[in-house]
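Bump. Still looking for Trans-sialidase structure tokens.
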Amino acid sequence: FLIYQTSELTFAVATPKRWVNIFDETAITSWMSKNAEGAAQGFHALFLFGVNEGIVATAAARYSGTGENRTLLLLSKISTDGDENWNDHTGSRVSTNEAGTSISDANAAKRFPLRVLAHVEGHTVKDGTETPKEFGFVTEIESSEGLNQGLQILPLARNFSIAYTVAGESLNGYLAFATTAIVTENDKRFVVPFQAIKANGRIVSTVIHSENHKVALTLHNGASAEGCRDPAIAPWEGGKLLMVTPCDDGYRRVYEFTEDGRTWTEALGTLSRVWGNSLSRTGSGVRGDVVTASIEEKQVMLFTHPMQHRTGVNGVTDLLHLWLTDTKKHIFDIGPISEVDKAAGVSSLLYTNGKLFSLYESGASAARSLVFTSLTEELARIKQVMKIWEEVDKRVSQLCSSSGGNAASSNESCHTNTLTAGLVGYLAGNLSGSQWKDEYLGVNATIAKGEKTSANGVRFKGAAAGAHWPVGKQGPNQLYHFANYNFTLLATVTIHTIPKSHHGVPLMGMKLNGHTSTGLVELLYDNNQSWKVVYKNTATKTQERSWEPDTTQYQLALMLRNGKAALYVDGQPLLTENNGVQRDTMGEISHLYIGGLGSGTEVGENANDRDVTVSNVLLYNRPLSSFELMGPLSKQNTVQFVLTDSAVHSDDKKVMEHKNTKKNAFEKIHTADGSVYDHLSSVLLQLLFGLWIFAVL
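Sorry for the wait, here they are.
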């Protein structure tokens, strides 16, 4: 077990080249052979660190021997000007049999940074007994007196004893692994991503961490699902950490856990299973990197991983993409950061002194190289996206003050955090061709036979008209994957004409993946002016004469709570989760639809009866509480919604234009019952469910 420490300090960065090849596997193998080091067995780590006044790029190559005699060669290059000049550093050789001196965590913690380089040897295999073997090293890497004189490795500790159980299950051994570990700010704990081999031969990802002010490390109580490997971790708010790990089932799982190892939870409501490992969401994938960054005085996470892109007729290549997330509700693809004509693999990120850099593996396995790039343009785009998120939240929060003196003065709960908590997507009046654009720059809805109306919405007429908002249908990366577990979809709807058919006209619902496109839950309206509830393509409930044409607006709510569906109209339940269908027994969600099916599959005598207007569609990544959904809709107090910052859409356009160019070039709240929101007043409910009229200046 090897850990190398660096100190992330400030440094000056000159105007960089776009891509700089700083390590070449062929050249390294040749150098090692000439120096009698033996043949390199490939790169096993690549990481960026800030040391003193420069950037250190490291690569680890394993050579000379097998089993307990394997040796790790740490290769480093140092740049003092951003990346214009990289100075070679003689390889530092560390054998797995080297001795070390035990040092208490209390003393070592004084020099611990937020990120350290760790290498885990995989030769420690269970020998038929339950007694753990002693193994491992902890060393630090620091600069000599002069930065250009290279780095020196200092032993801190060795000989850890790690039990052969994780999450209550027996282990057979540990997998060789090179990774970036961290030391937490609060308790100064070592936390190291770790791969274990279970008794059944399957690999799981977990972490080992220090306890009780000792350097000796302990396995965490939790572990990933089987088949998840190559984890990366980063610290987050409230003493929590996040792990991102690609899994054999085709996507990346994200786990939240605490420093002390007491809790371990898959982040199904936000980030987990969003990113696919391939175009078909199959295969195991390779390691990405994740870092925490404070940008514009806000904490965000930045994440890299290779994404497959089609080239030519049947070709596929991997481009390294950079992603931005606030971890609570928003995710944005900043775009590809690797060279278009070369496949990208594992990667490392460094954010320091307000600058963003990446080191990644490029090229085929037989002739790989490690490429450094400065992400100046991408960082500017990150700031633009964050500004748009903030501006849209402000616009939504203005609903409180725009309704007149009553709401704002009488209700202390009327503020941004209440209205925007868990608000992931927002469709208002931004249309472009067949795209109904999400104001938060997330996932756009696709419309068919729809025209923009003066009421800040879309009017749908005729067969196959409507809008669908993709979930699984989005493809390899599914930003709304959370909708398979918990969500609330709200929309304001006006029905203009009474249909002729008694079968009903689809108005809102969710469709499942598959050739038959089964509707899990759907809301229809018929010629008796009744609402019809349908699930599994079978009508189950009808309410007699419950809607009026043309003159009335209705607030529709489609909800999934812990996988069970519910439907509400003006806060009144038509189907509750108590008698609803369980989603996970039928498959995953393909898409949500509003106003109509929005596809060419709609036929029959009711096909041309549709004439509805849909406006102000909101998608939450949580189920709204019963109190939020109850209460009469206020018909009198309509809200004048005034956009005072026209630059919002301007920034939106800049970000999306840049994103399309790149493509062509080749208070967290997750309560199960929403009870935390029960303090909302009826005035706020009127605002939430009332008519929203937007006037763009």
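The first strand starts at residue 2 and ends at 5.

Edit: fixed formatting.
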